[in-house]
Amino acid sequence: MKRPQRYLFIIMTVMVAVYLLLTRLPGEAGLALLAALVLFALVVCIWGRDWFIARHHTKRRRWAQAVERYERFEKKMLKARWPKLTVILYLGIYSLDGAAIARNNIGQCLLNAGDLDGSVRWLRAALQRDPLYAVPYVNLAVIAAMRHDETTARREMTRALQLGFNPNSAQRILRRALDAANQQSSGDLR
After folding, report:
1. What is the pTM of this model?
2. Domain span holding position 155
3. Which CATH number covers residue 137?
4. What are the average pLDDT values for consecutive 10-residue runs of the chain, which has 190 residues?
5. Backbone CA torsion sign across 49, 51, 56, 60
6. DSSP summary character for residue 81
7. 172 inside domain
8. Is residue 90 in some structural domain?
9. Which alpha helices (DSSP H) does the chain contain, by range?
């Protein structure tokens, strides 16, 4: 079982376990547990507000502000004594390491801003933190395609596929990146 399937199974199992626990406990005990879970989630969300602000900036295409907030979040994650408890902020099937996810997101923002070298540095840092995280490989494949290096793009995308990235999405992303690079180079020739 590849990592995305394993993480999805774990996530679903925890959700079912919490649901069963809440519905099987006597009324007052179930409400107390639910209140404790909500309080915990609220505390984690307040602690991780930089994550939410960064995502907001990303959606608005404010790359510099998003990078700043993701960097702040990543620093918090590295200092946290309980980083595993913050997983509810960035729950995903490709990685459960908040610092690696933040580094990948910084790399994506820099990629969108046109800073390819900076993007590669952050994506490599994400892979240093979590070598089995497939998404940075996808982003590295896009950068290689933008640089007209089809061999490297295919190699990076193959690594993402080996780690469980969705093959249909990978094919679509790589085709779009290579087409954009080819259009740009044909436009440069005119």
Report:
1. 0.89
2. 48-189
3. 1.25.40.10
4. 90 93 91 93 94 97 98 94 84 92 97 96 98 97 94 95 94 89 68
5. positive
6. S
7. yes
8. yes
9. 3-24, 27-47, 49-59, 63-79, 98-113, 116-129, 134-146, 150-162, 167-189
